Structure prediction request, 846 residues.
Amino acid sequence: MGKVQTIENMSIKKMPVEKVLVIEKLCKSFGDNHVLVDFDLELNKGENVAVLGKSGSGKSVLIKCIIGLLTPDRGRINVLGQNIDEMNIRELDEIRTKVGFLFQSNALYDSMTVRENLEFPLRRHWIKITVAETERKVIEVLNNVGLLHTVDMMPAELSGGMRKRIALARTLILDPEIILYDEPTTGLDPITAKGISNLIKEMGEKYNTSALIISHDMNCIRATSDKIVMLIDGRCYTTGTYEELKENKDPKVKQFFE
Amino acid sequence: MAKKTINNVKLGIFALVGLLVMIFSLYMIGKDTNMFGSNYTLRVRFDNVHGLTSGNNIRYAGIQVGTVKKVKILNDTLIEVSMLIDTKMKNYIHMSDIVSMSTDGLMGNRILNIAPAKDGSPLAQDGDLLVTKKSTSTDDMLETLDKTNRNIKDVSEELKMTFLRINSSSALWKLLSDETLPNNLRASAVSIRHAAVNADKMVADIHEIINDVKAGKGSLGAILTDTTIAYNLNEAVVRIQQVGDHADELAKQLTRIAETIKQDVNTGKGPAHAILKDSSIVINLNNSLSNIEKGTASFNQVMEALKHNFLLRGYFRKLEKKQKEEQQKAGY
Amino acid sequence: MSLPRTWQRFLNETGELSRFTGRFFSQGFKPRYEISELLRQCYIIGYKSLPLVGLTGFIMGLVLTMQLRPSLISYGAESQLPAMVSIAVVREIGPVITALIFAGKIGSSIGAELGSMRVTEQIDAMEVSGTNPFKFLVVTRVLAATLMLPVLVLLSDAISLYGSYLGVNIKGVTSLDLFFKQVFDALSFDDFIPAFIKTYFFGFAVGIVGCFKGFNSKKGTEGVGRSANSAVVVSSVLIFILDLLAVQITDLFGLN
Prediction:
């Protein structure tokens, strides 16, 4: 890991802004429902970008395309310098170790304990890692999300907020470079949601990740992101910081801030 | 981790038990088919195998010793059956042991029986040809029953004629001085007539049944699956029994009468003497009596056999054995 | 296309299921092999089903014996009771009833489990975590069901014959020795082998239908319930269809 980071650090010196994710003219439709139409997006290293849109506007589809869970109809997705559609399964696997995904419904494996849940990505990716190292990582990441005591519990025994934290821990355990958040605060009470938002921000800094946050929760977006992309009618409608967009008089933009 | 190991152990036990059950049942099923263990082959020839096929059981004095390996047609009248016999039987089966065919239970599979001959012939070796004996099939049994019934019919017919003649001869009655004798005779005549009618009916019934059997699959199984026929057969058996009883009684009475008459005739007492000196009547009467006796005997046999109901086979085998012994005593 | 919609849906479903089965065969036997997950599924699907299957098997043998007795007595063939029950159990009732119970227990649980995994994105999460969810979830479960049902049927047969032995002893008397002697005398390989082989197909049907329904579950909790339910219904019907095929095929080979 250390070696890779030095190379990246060198490249940062040469090129101050490194694009970790570039999406060009992405199209995806289900039948007659055109969810994404020529969608463009860029994500720079260390940047947190929020994609804001109504429910069903194709935000989830967008990030599932990025991670290769869905295949776009047209367009190019470049992740860490590699095109997703050109990769074989092995390369895709490798990219997926560098791109974390926090699912909307957490997707914790019900039949496994928290420990097994956290170990799962480590075991399943073709990573050579010792048992002691695995254990150390599990403890470390649990400590970071503040849930060390739940290590031998089942997901069903945890509250919604705790599950979200565990899910985040599972995403973080692979030391990803990009994390995709799919509606991280949906279904949580405002206080817990605030806690999760802060945790996302905190972990982003701690693990030095870039993040793409899909949400319609303005508080969360305000707390976590540097830039907002408005996804309306399948296109990148407008971009800007929270403050910039708040001042925008366009009714389509304005409705999100009311 | 420890839990996983325990689960795997449980799974292992589970799979092993399943495997054991399978091996055990395969072995138990296969035991009779001689798939396991060593055996040798003996041959036997029949003119009709009555549906015997490979895999049917072979018994030596009632003990399971092997299975039929192959049934092969040699020519239009000869069928060769190869038998797989347990090697352990090599010291028991002799060259002159008799192979016969029978059925395992009333509706069971065909089996081959090897009956020990007990005559000190050499032991049978691999590939030897054993001798056979024609078996009693249910068809044959029914045929015998049919014949018996025809005989009975003839006998009763004859008896009827005889007594009609006696009845119509009014001179005889007038001349007979003794009062009791004609009464006896008259009573006998009524009984006989009754018996004859019964016998007629019964014969008709049996005929019907036999026809049914022949028209059907030709096995007793066909009758017994059809409950109405089975019921008819039962009724027929009851009737046979009745007739048998009657005939029995009748025969006794006739004997008594005949004795009285004989006495009378011999001593020259009474006027019956003259008429009864007519030798033809006496001969007729004698014939009838002996016929009746024969008929009664076979009736009783049939009755007894059918009383055994599902053990028919056993009874007839016993009878055959006895007959054979008698033959052997008489013949060889 | 003027086909009624229900027919269209049925044919579409059949086609999807066939494709799913094809996918099982094309992916199932290539690395990477999920051996430890397969063992775990075997444990859950096989070992954990034994009590239920054993209980139904036991009751089945007992009841069958008691029901057959009167009619056999009317033929005077009461002694044939063990033979009759053993043939009925080994040839038909054991495999089919066990498979139906198995479909009820395993088909529904696979359908519901995979359905809820689909709905809560666990299947997507698996894919993201470098695991082929089809291999990890579907192949292991289908193989486990295929391998475990025959074992369960064997054990269930044995247990139901023991139940039958007790059934004989309720109104009559026989020894365990004599009973099983009669049982094995009545059975031949022709009874045992085709019945045993068809259980593999039953197990496969239950596994593949359960996985298919669960894997393609619709969003929402209702979708999960529907997956579990239709997994049981479809696999039960498939079991009977396979049974029909099996009897015709064995007949074709002259094994009846």
About this structure: The interface with chain C takes residues 4, 7-8, 10-11, 14-15, 17-19, 21-22, 25-26, 28-33, 55, 105, 107, 224, 309-310 of chain B (CB under 8 Å). Residues 138-330 of chain B form one domain.
